Amino acid sequence: MSFSGKIKEELSEQYKEARHCNLAELSAILHMCGAFSEDRNGVCTVRFHSENFQVARKCFTLMKKTFNIRTDIAIRRNMVKGSSAFFIYCKGKELLAVRDTIVQAMCCKRAYIRGAFLAAGSMSDPGKSYHFEIVCADKEQAEYLKGMMNSFQLDAKIVQRKKTYVVYLKEGSQIVDILNVMEAHVALMELENVRILKEMRNSVNRKVNCETANINKTVYAAVRQVEDIEYIRDTIGLDKLPDGLRDTALTRLANPEAALKELGNLMSVPIGKSGVNHRLRKLSELADKLREQ
């Protein structure tokens, strides 16, 4: 099952005691997957359609819990694709409360976002990328949902995709927050585990790359030092050098792979790392002057 499927499965099992929260969640589902109209007598009707059984079941159950009206459900199976489509139809003046719901309380905002994701949301596999989105039919609906999500200190954005508008989040930390807002706590913990593993891998890779770069830099410097000392030896001879520089040059030639600290300990008169570095820089400057001459 995809990560989106796991989230929806978890959310589809949640039912709140408060009627206003159920009303808010039902409103989101029906506005995302349904269509409101009026019959010839002016009675409000709603037609719901989804290919997701969990969404259809949640919608049907919320209708039963929230209103005491007749609800018809039909299932159509596609024998070629092996999939099913679920249709729900009901009518009654009570549905005006769903159609015209004004969501204000924070608990109801959580429920509305939960219903919107159930009906029209998806999330990428967090092992590959972080992307959370809810597809809206029009810009007004997208702006309404965006404002509701951002009331939880998120930074949701909107992008137009063909004839639809998509409200999305791309940062891992913000997706963790929206899962918490929707109260998908099991999915939240799974996402956090994935994030921790990815951060550990990235940290290890950064350290390995840094160490590799340092090793390459050290090796390159040592090779250049040996070349400079050999050039001095072949031009004026190492005997012309002061005792300290001659000792450093001979020790480097004898130990081309040694680190500076180790090189300092190997000299006839041991010196520190900074002292070795200073002498090698002097030898390099001398070699450059000889090359210019």
SSE order, as H and E? Answer: HHEEHEEHHEEHEEHHHHH
CATH architecture of the largest domain: Roll
Instruction: Indicate the mean pLDDT.
Output: 89
The CATH class of the largest domain is identified as: Alpha Beta
What is the share of helical residues? 55-70%
> Structural class, from helix and strand content?
alpha+beta
Shape annotation: rod-shaped
Q: Which short descriptors sum up this protein?
A:
293 residues; alpha+beta; Endonuclease I-creI; 2 domains; four-stranded antiparallel beta sheet; 8 strands; rod-shaped
Walkthrough of the structure:
The protein has 293 residues and is α+β, with helices and mostly antiparallel strands. The chain has two domains: 3-183, Homing endonucleases (Endonuclease I-creI, Roll); 208-292, no CATH class. Helix content is 58%, strand content 16%. It contains eleven helices and eight strands. The protein has helices spanning 3-12, 19-33, 53-66, 96-99, 106-120, 139-150, 172-182, 185-235, 243-254, 260-266, 273-292, and strands spanning 34-38, 44-50, 71-78, 83-91, 121-123, 132-136, 157-161, 164-169. A four-stranded antiparallel β-sheet has the order 1-2-4-3. A four-stranded antiparallel β-sheet has the order 5-6-8-7. A hairpin with an 8-residue loop joins β5 and β6 (132-136). The longest helix has 51 residues, at 185-235.
